[in-house]
Amino acid sequence: MGRLFMPQDKKIYCCMLKGCYKMRNYSRCGFTCVLQPLDIGINKPFKDYIRHQYTMWASVSLRGREKVPSPSRELVLSWIKASWDRITPDMILNAFRACGYDFECVSH
Questions:
Q1: What is the C-alpha to C-alpha distance for residues 67 and 45, in angstroms, rounded to an integer?
Q2: Inter-axis angle of helices 73-85 and 43-61, to 10 degrees?
Q3: pLDDT reading at 27 higher than 70
Q4: Where is each DDE-1 domain found (predicted)?
Q5: I need a labelling partner for 27 at 20 to 30 A (CA). Which of 57, 76, 92, 99 fits?
Q6: What beta strand segments (E) does 18-100 contain?
């Protein structure tokens, strides 16, 4: 359970902790998206997969009912875990690269 919100590739964290990344200098207005790599490359696929799982579950659960029941906490947690498991270390690196971070010390 402790690994749920950590990438499988520890090189990413080691690289960031050692300070061997470089970030481009963005000082003008309008660069909020550049400073939010999770919004750029992680949150959307993460949320899309959870939404897909819910939609599939709701379509089956709605049959013969007027209202969709609430999913159990365990089921929602399983969707969150499955969604996170689909996020790869490359997706995380690419999200940071898209925002201007350069991870020279990370090699695959």
A1: 27
A2: 140
A3: no
A4: 34-96
A5: 92
A6: 21-23
The set of residues, in sequence order, having a beta carbon less than 8 Å from that of 106 and lying 6+ positions away, is 11, 12, 15, 93
Token pair recorded at residue 33: 């998206």
**Residues 71-102 pLDDT 10s:** 999 999 999 999 999 999 999 888 888 877 77
What's the pLDDT score for residue 50? Answer: 96
Helices (H) and strands (E) in the chain, counts: 5, 2
- Of 29 and 55, which is predicted with more confidence? 55
Q: Which residue has the tokens 């270390």?
A: 89
- The DSSP 8-state label assigned to residue 25 in this structure reads -
Q: Which of 25, 11, 12, 1 lies closest to 77, judged by CA?
A: 1
